Amino acid sequence: MSFLSRSLPLLMMAVLIAPSVSYAQPEDKERSKLTELEKTFYDLMKDSVLIGSFRLITKDGALTEPRDEVYTVDGAQKIHGENWTVKSRIQYGKVDVTVPIPIKLYWVEDTPVISVTDLMVPGVGVYTSRVQVYRGVYAGSWFGKGYGGTLSGRIMKRADYEKQQQAKENESKKKVDGEGY
Fold this sequence. Notes:
By secondary structure, the chain is α+β, with helices and mostly antiparallel strands.
């Protein structure tokens, strides 16, 4: 599988969740300008981790087996109207990058839908994606030139995710220590 097809889902989530603005602004002032629904999205994205999987759609229309994905999100910022940015750190293989990408955020009743249409990701290509976020879960689709797929998972606060990872690491260490290694 090519580098591009392996990295595309990660890049697409970056497209869906990342900005070119500073998050050093006073949060209370920024947050106070949002509607109640926007505050919910803002709070969900702040210092969060999206944990899930992606699947490619094969040439014959089948879905590949799920592959793990993790995105660390610093936060979301409303620019104007439906225009937002979301800042996300993407890590896979030897890549470790924070990618700022503009998004459009639409609402279907109380459900935010992240939308990117024909967005040029420098050095990678043009992508379109739609991802809904509801009750701490994300799910959607993404497409590049000649390929695409699905993605889904849950959203956790970064501190909770880090505690969970530490607990898993400690449990793993106990098993190894218990086996005399």
